[in-house]
Fold this sequence. Notes:
alpha+beta; two-stranded antiparallel sheet; 239 residues
Amino acid sequence: xxxSLAPCFSGAFVRFKDGLALPGxxxxxxxxxxxxxxxxxxxxxxxxAEVYPGGDRRALVSMWAQWHFGALIIPTTAAIVFLDRDxxxxxxxxxxxxxxxxxxxxxxxPGDGAPLPPRGTDRFARLFAGHVGPLxxxxxxxxxxxxxxxxxxxxxxxxxTLQQAVVDDRANPSALAEGQALLQSRSDGGCKPxxxxxxxxxxxxxxxxxxxRKVCCLRYxxxxxxxCGGICPTPPKSI
Length: 239
């Protein structure tokens, strides 16, 4: 855990405290820009496939992305909304420490960041435009996985993080509003289509409101992994 970020990691966020790390905390790491090289990411997927032998390749890529986005998005978002911290998390700024199976263990950042401007915008630009976007494009292009599926993974993790933060009095309302806009606006600030728009919905069902993805993550195509329940847009009976 990065000591200066420790105040972020209470309650629901405790188990994500090690998602970000400083250089030297892990024995080895791969520069994240290398993930955009076909042979590097292919070797990681081959390693990850050993965790789920016989698993569907698209589902493997999706699950690998979920591991990576969890380590990246949750602690970075917590640092933004709780500490107004601008972390250097763009793809070409960071490295990734890996588990034996090839999945992301931690994102290695070069430093613990700097304060965000009091009335700044684009708080999440490094995170999404600088890291998630380039990685999604490469994974989709190399492995033939739907970009919308991968963005759904990112949106699911991001929206969950915001929902945990919104009930905490320490959260910056402006940061929360900016984060929600990334999920609810059809276009970004530059009038380009917003890839996370509408990917997480809240729907009425049996007198309750349920949270649901718009695109299935395909995890049920991996051996030993069940459907993710009510959040899945694919009813279990049809799987």
